[in-house]
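call fold target=Pyrophosphatase PpaX
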Amino acid sequence: MKLVVFDVDGTLVDSQHHIHGAMTLAFQAAGLAPLPRDAVLQIVGLSLPVAVAHLAPGQDAATQALIADAYRRAFMQARLAQAAPLYPGALACLDGLAARDDLLLAVATGKSRRGLAAMIAAHGLEGRFVSLQTADDHPSKPHLSMLLAALAETGVAAGDAVMIGDTSFDMDMARAAGMAAFGVGWGYHARDRLAASGAVLVAEDFTDLGQAVARWAA
C-alpha cells in the first residue's frame, strides 16, 4: 500500500482570489496598506499566524493578531458566498486514484479543520481521504509533523509515500519526512523554486499528475 498526500490551496483548489481579497481587508482593518497579490500568494500553505508574521514583520504581536482575526472573518465570508473552485481535472484525478486498491489518499494543509471540512463538502469529496491533517493540530509547514501523523494513521512507510503540492513548503516537509515530493505547475510558487526545494517532478496538469503517480506507484 502506498500513500498520496495532497496539499489543498493552490493544488486542489484555486483559492487565490479568496486569499488575496481576505488579506487585503485584513490589512485595511489594521490601518495598513494592502499587499500585492504576488506577495500574498507566496505565503499560501503556511499556518495563518506564521503567514501574517511573514507579511507584516514590522508589526507588533497585537497588530498581527488583529490582522489574523480580520483575515479569518473575511475569508469565511468569501467562502460562504462562493467556494473556491477545484482546478480543472482535479476531481477526475482524485476519483481515479481513490479507485485504486493499492493507494490511500490524504491531505496536509495549512487550512483549519473547519475550512478543510467546508472545502470537502462544497466539492463532494467526502470519503476520498483516509487522513486529514490541518493547521489546528500541527506546527506550520514546512515542519514535518503533518506528514508524520498521516504516515502513522495509515501505517505506510515514508518510502512508500508522496507529497503533492504547489509550494516549496510542501517540498521541504516531504524531504524532511523522507517522502517523495511532486510539485504542480499551476499553483503559487514558481517551478524553479519547487525544483530547488526537492521536487522530483513538476506536473503540467492533473492528467500529467495522475500518470506520474501511476508510474511512481507501479
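return ok
Residues 16-81 form one domain. The longest strand covers residues 103-108.
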